[in-house]
From TrEMBL:
Its EC number is 2.3.1.225. GO terms for cellular component: endomembrane system. It comes from Salvia divinorum. It is found in: Endomembrane system. It is an enzyme of class 2 (transferase). It catalyses: L-cysteinyl-[protein] + hexadecanoyl-CoA = S-hexadecanoyl-L-cysteinyl-[protein] + CoA. This is S-acyltransferase. It is a multi-pass membrane protein. Belongs to the DHHC palmitoyltransferase family. Keywords: Acyltransferase, Lipoprotein, Membrane, Palmitate, Transferase, Transmembrane, Transmembrane helix.
Length: 365
């Protein structure tokens, strides 16, 4: 009886899952299903924390009637935080494969344009030669029979099959670097400095920071700025919600003990989240100001290009102002920024101890 009941339940579940997969084909992929569940859980969690407050706090409802702008601002922050979460999760972190394709395609396009202009020029020259009087046609040796010799190489190369991407990446490393040690064994692609393969995304990411389970995506050059704004919004929202919880508990303590217990438990969870978010915000602000990534900070000794550099020297640091500018504004809408490794001379300059003059001249900025 129990076995047949169990099997019928399993059949019903698999039938429902099949129907759901047919209705929404994107949910047939387990990774997409788990990403959707994660996002749904996050939205429900936000609604729970804010909803409980509006359910129990009569004072807040009264305040909403008299000062609607107060609740409207809170709701606006609530919505903006959720929107920022979805925007960050949906933004590409800067996959190396996409950048490589864009650069190689741009190079191929430039070559096609050059080839077309060369053909046009050669045709014009031939027509001009044909129009010349008979005695003049004997002079140019290259066009004496009207043929045009053009070498077409479908692969955008200068030497063998060196692509534009290979040339660009190799120019970012010191002279004697070998491409074999710089190629990702999973993507089989040449990695520029600061890129790393993410095993969760199964792609190489530019300026890899970390893979965020909460967002279900990597944090890299493409979405690090948005990620910072998301944790900033989430911190502000959590702090405001904590203040509302404390305000309710202060004025209503002992009125309804069961409601108080629920709110105290939720406040405890909120406080832990708030501490975590504040630390995360401070940590990422520090990384941004020194132009580092979480991966570079945590795995400094294991990263080849950071080996041998003193701990307090940040090789990509260009001063706080420039770092902030590069982080917030430098990325154009279509292209990512590729950083070259600093030379020994530049590293020596960065490792020079600070003097009074450096402090006065704001060397760190
Ligand atoms: Zn890779
Ligand atoms: Zn990833």
């Amino acid at each position: 009886m129990g076995v047949s009941c169990g099997s019928s339940l399993r059949d019903t579940w698999s039938r429902a899952a099949d129907r759901c997969s047919r209705l929404f084909p994107c949910f047939s992929d387990p990774a997409r299903r788990s990403a959707f569940s994660l996002k749904l859980a996050l939205v429900l969690l936000h609604i729970l924390f804010a909803g409980v407050l509006f359910l129990f706090d009569r004072d807040l409802i009264e305040k909403t009637k008299h000062q609607p702008w107060y609740t409207a601002t809170y709701v606006l922050l609530f919505v903006a935080t959720l929107v920022q979460y979805f925007v960050t999760a949906g933004t590409s972190p800067g996959y190396v494969i996409d950048v490589q394709k864009a650069i190689d395609e741009r190079d191929a396009e430039a070559r096609r344009t050059l080839l077309a202009s060369n053909i046009q020029k050669a045709v014009d020259d031939r027509d001009a030669a044909a129009r010349k009087p008979l005695f003049a046609s004997k002079q140019p040796a290259s066009s004496k029979n009207g043929d045009v010799a053009i070498t077409v190489d479908g692969r955008n190369n200068h030497r063998g099959n060196v692509t534009a991407w290979t040339k660009l990446v190799m120019s970012l490393f010191p002279q004697r670097s070998s491409p074999t040690g710089l190629t990702c064994p999973y993507c089989n692609i040449l990695q520029p400095p600061r890129a790393k393969h993410c095993h969760d995304c199964n792609k190489c990411v530019l300026q890899f920071d970390h893979h965020c389970v909460w967002l279900g995506t990597c944090i890299g050059q493409g979405n690090h700025c948005r990620f910072w704004w998301y944790i900033c919004g989430e911190t502000a929202l959590t702090l405001w919600t904590c203040i509302l919880y404390i305000g309710y508990l202060k004025s209503n303590i002992l009125k309804a003990w069961w409601a108080d217990i629920i709110l105290i438990l939720l406040l405890a969870a909120l406080s832990i989240s708030l501490i975590f978010l504040m630390l995360l915000l401070l940590f990422h602000s520090y990384l941004i100001m020194t132009n580092q990534t979480t991966y570079e900070l945590v795995r400094r000794r294991r990263i080849a290009y950071l080996r041998g550099i003193p701990e307090r020297v940040y090789p990509f640091n260009e001063g706080v102002c420039r770092n902030l500018y590069l982080f917030c504004c430098a990325r154009s809408s279509s292209m990512y920024r590729l950083e070259r490794l600093p030379t020994a001379q530049e590293l020596e300059e960065k490792s020079r101890p600070y003097t009074c003059y450096d402090v006065l001249s704001c060397r760190c900025c």
